[in-house]
Every structure is written in C-alpha cells, then in structure tokens.
Amino acid sequence: MPEFAIHSVPGSPFGRSVLVALLEKNAGYRLLPVVPGTLQSAEHLARHPFGKVPILEHGSFRLYETQAILRYIDRVLPNPALTPVPPQAAARMDQLMSINDWYFFQGVQNVIGFQRIVVPRIMGQSADEAAIAAAMPKARAVFDELARQLGDQPYFVGESVTLADVLLAPQLDLLREIPEWGPLTARHANLRAWLERMNARASMAATTWERVAAMAKVA
After folding, report:
1. What residue ranges do the domains of the chain occupy?
2. pLDDT at 90 over 80
3. Which of 65, 79, 169, 211 is spaced 20 to 30 A from 15 at the CA atom?
4. Is the peptide bond between 78 and the residue preceding it cis, with omega within 30 degrees of 0?
5. Do 38 and 99 contact (CB within 8 A), yes or no?
6. pLDDT of res. 217
7. Which CATH architecture best describes the domain 4-81+206-218?
C-alpha cells in the first residue's frame, strides 16, 4: 500500500485527528509540516484551495477536509473499524462529527482556543478577554450537549472508539489547560473521564503538540 503523507501544522487539532486515526489503525505516515504563515502561499493553495490543514496524500491521491480524510482512512484500512455498523450508531457518530465542526470549532475553539493558546504561543500577544467572554455561552451549550451525548458510555458511540472520538479528543485536549476548562466541565465529570481515557491511548500520547513539533523539526 502507498505511504500516507500528511501536511499539517503542529498543534492543529484537525491534523492531530488524522494522525490519531492512522495510529489507531497501526499505520505509519510521513509528516509534511506546514508553517502557519504559509497557508496562503501559492504552493499551499495548490494543495488546498481554501488554505487550511490537514491534507492527506496517499500515493497519487490527494484529499483535504478532515472528515473526508478520516472516513477515507477508515475505508482503506478497515481494521480496527472506527465506524460502527448499526445505522443508528453510525448516524450518531456523524452527528457528533458535525457538532465538532460547526458548533465546537466554529465559535468556540476558533475563538477561545485561538485567543488562549494560539495568540500568546504563536503570535506573542495577549488574549482578547472580551472575545473569550462573548464565546462562553456557546461553549457552555456545546459542552452541555457533548456531555449529554456521551452519557455514561466509555466512548461517544458506545464501548469502542469511533471517528467521533478521534475528531473530538484533540479539540477538547487543546482546551484542557486553559482557565475556562474548569467552568466548562464542572458539571461534566463524564467528559473529563472520557478525555482521560482518550489521552491514555498510545495514539493520543504520540501526537501531542510537542511531539508533532519535534517530528516536524526532523521531517
């Protein structure tokens, strides 16, 4: 089978999801690091016309959009399966993945995560506290719904890890050390316990920001 090559920015939760999926499949990959300031370069736009990451290359096949990449990986590497067979369980997984992209990332991660993590760590500036405060009501709604969907299950769609867990875990893990994490999860011990289970997996331990950044330096 051709090699998997992943274009991503170290620290990107979407890029991390793809790496986690590959490791859950026990598949090797080659990281092709992308410098954040080059996302609008002609070279990068030739790979991704909207200037985002990640991008997967598998032989001569190139694919962008994280959900599409995750589903592709699950199809070409069917074992262990990361998509449940029962239609209702698969539909629940799809719903959770859409919650991640449309409600968690849009308006929560791209505001709170950006201001708390990217702005000081990458840009060397202070966070916009007003923007964070304005995003908190939506963040509470998202965390409340994720906790409700999880319930008392070990993983989001039952007893086994699915693509929903693979997509959501890097997003939540990115927020784990910020001041807002406590208030957002105070009533959701199940979410905290789920993230601990996910972080205990080898796929998550191998793809922390620090480890991916170290890989990028030698790539």
Report:
1. 4-81+206-218, 87-203
2. yes
3. 79
4. no
5. no
6. 85
7. 3-Layer(aba) Sandwich (3.40)
Tokens of 162: 């699915």
Instruction: Give the fold, CATH level 3, of 87-203.
Output: Glutathione S-transferase Yfyf (Class Pi); Chain A, domain 2 (1.20.1050)
Distance CA 14, CA 144 (A): 22
CA angle centred on 48, ends 113 and 101, rounded to 5°: 35
Rounded to 10°, the helix 129-150/87-99 angle is 170
Q: What is the pTM of this model?
A: 0.96
163-174 and 189-199 are packed helices; what angle lies between their axes, rounded to 10 degrees? 100
Q: Which residues contact 157 (CB under 8 A, 6 or more apart)?
A: 84, 89, 92, 93, 96, 164, 165
Task: Return all residues near 181 (Cβ < 8 A) that are at least 6 apart.
Answer: 175
